[in-house]
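Worked example

This section walks through a single chain of length 284. The input is the sequence exactly as stored; nothing has been trimmed or padded.
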Amino acid sequence: MEQKLNEIVYTPDSQLRNPKLFFRAMWQDLLASRELAWRLFVRNVSARFRQSMLGYLWAFLPPIITTITFVFLKSQKILGVGDTVIPYPVYVMIGTLLWQGFVDALNSPLRLVNSSKSLLAKINFPRESLLLTGLYEVLFNFIIRLILLIVVFIWFRIQIPITAAFAPFGILALMALGLMIGILLTPLGFLFQDIGRGTTVIVSFWFFVTPVVYPPPTTWPASLISYINPVSPLLITTRELLTTGKIVLPEIFTLVAGSTFFLMFAGWVIYRVAMRHLIERIGA
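Given that input, the structure is written out below as tokens.
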């Protein structure tokens, strides 16, 4: 019995001329990407830690060093951050872990696409597999760091409120926001290295205008950080879900989270349309 193969026809017409077929193809490619994405994820993680002397310790070192640095600065009264409702080391550790999850998600699409340029030019495979690979890596890194957070909670005897059960929604919203921004930047970053370098500079500045290591400002105009900066309500609310259980910005959190998932889908559409032309350009 002969096996029937799927036939793919390429035309110069825009893919969006038939939205129904376009969105169906997007969904089919996403499903088809799962196995390849998993294999790429396992390969990348194995290669990363196999070529490192410290191995998995590198996942713990950045948040530990950041926490120690800011705790020291506060203890020496070099940095005035105000009072926190939980011990300051715990406050910084949670903020740093959540921020790192956002940054990892933001950097993953462009990093994986740039590292796969030769593969993209030679082999026809679902481009969504690169996005899924990045998501797997972000989740893996966060789960490893979560072990560190559990140790800190036990050490400082932090009582976890029942609202912590909803914290994964905040964590996923933060990662989705980073992934959405990363997907939107990928087509330009694919062509111009300035995008990747500029993103590094902006993220460094973004860290200091986000309440990662200090409580949200309550006086104007500094309080605008909690409203204009999209990361702030997601990070603040997730930290509150994990610690106090008292949510200060539920409306803004819902608005930003809902908008993020909508814009991430729009970014996926742009990514899919743009990648076809970008791959033709590097293959020419």
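What to look for: The two ends are 39 Å apart (CA to CA).
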